[in-house]
Amino acid sequence: MAEPRSVVVTGASRGLGLAAAAHLHGAGWHVLAAMRSPDEGLERLRAATGAASDDPRLVPICLDLDDPSSIANAAGTIREAVGAPDGLVHNAGVAGVGCLEELPMSVWEQIFSTNFFGPVRLTKELLPSMRAAGRGRIVMVSSQGAIRGMPAIGAYSAAKGALERWAESLSQEVAPFGLGVTVLVAGTFKTDILTLTPTYADARGPYAKHHEALEATGRRYLRFAASPDRFAPAVERALAEHRPFARHGVGIDAQLLLLGNRLLPSSLLQRVLGRAIGIPRPGSAPVDERKPRA
Predict the structure, then answer these.
(1) Residues 6+ apart with CB under 8 A from 286
(2) H or E stretch including 185?
(3) Structural domain includes residue 66
(4) Helices (H) and strands (E) in the chain, counts
């Protein structure tokens, strides 16, 4: 009997990562579920999959994308378990809410560490074995903020934008060796990132109206957010692709944004998005709110 295909899924303890790992396990993949807290996350995965405690196709990997030594150790464990993985799904991510003047630089650094530099390091560790095997698909889970930067999540948008530009570069580097890259632009799904993201918004500061509008818009969109289980099949399809590079929107909102980004002039799309999310119009801030606070 042929060995099952193997896939590494980061951020597999909750949200889109848990849904993707559970779906792939159900489809017969050997899932290496990478997460910061394997004890907690593995229990959730077993509950979602019905896998036994000794299931050889569900392997927890301890991974902290903020820690280079943890990344190196995780990569060693992955190579020891499966050699070259057939798939690598970069899903793990963190966010923080706050406009530029509100968000501490330490939060910017953490978001880039987890969402960008961590995936770069992990791929750098695993790529030699995948290149030597002459096969493999690398899937980057991105965000609508990577297509058009969104207010109050500037760090998250910038990190995901960097991830997409790197994915485009990487695809051209690895294509001659039989590898490919897919970017999945996630729409709005009911995940913990919507409720657990720390906020640095100042409700009495100059950006208060921004946050009021964004929170109201977020509540409206959340009512229509899909279950993460609706996202998981897109990961399986991405892993089966053969083109050197592909990008797909997952969810109607992500698909519409990708379409608008292709068809509309940038200035028009900016105005449309600004009205859709309700942020104050250009030049509308009262004079007293423009002055630096003492």
Answers:
(1) none
(2) strand 180-186
(3) yes
(4) 13, 7
User: What is the model's pTM?
Assistant: 0.93
The answer to whether position 293 is within a domain reads no
- Sorted by sequence, the CB contacts under 8 Å of residue 293 that are 6+ apart come out as 205, 206
DSSP 8-state code for residue 51: -
Domain holding 162, by residue range, is 6-282
Is 291 domain-assigned?
no
Which candidate in 156, 200, 207, 221 is catalytic?
156
Tokens describing residue 63: 């991974």
Rounded CA gap, 149 and 266, in Å? 12
Is 156 a catalytic site residue? yes
The number of domains in the chain is: 1
pLDDT of residue 289: 59
Q: What parts of the chain have a pLDDT lower than 70?
A: 1, 194, 287-294
CATH classification of the domain holding 71: 3.40.50.720
Burial 252-284 (b: 16+ CB within 10 A, else e): ebbeebbeeeeeeeeeebeeebeeebebeeeee
Bridge partner list, 186? 143, 250
User: pLDDT value at position 253?
Assistant: 92
In a domain, 289, yes or no: no
How far is residue 25 from each of residues 15, 57, 89, 130, 207, measured CA to CA in Å?
16, 7, 14, 21, 45
pLDDT in tens, 23-67: 999 999 999 999 999 988 999 999 999 999 899 999 999 999 999
The number of residues in the chain equals 294
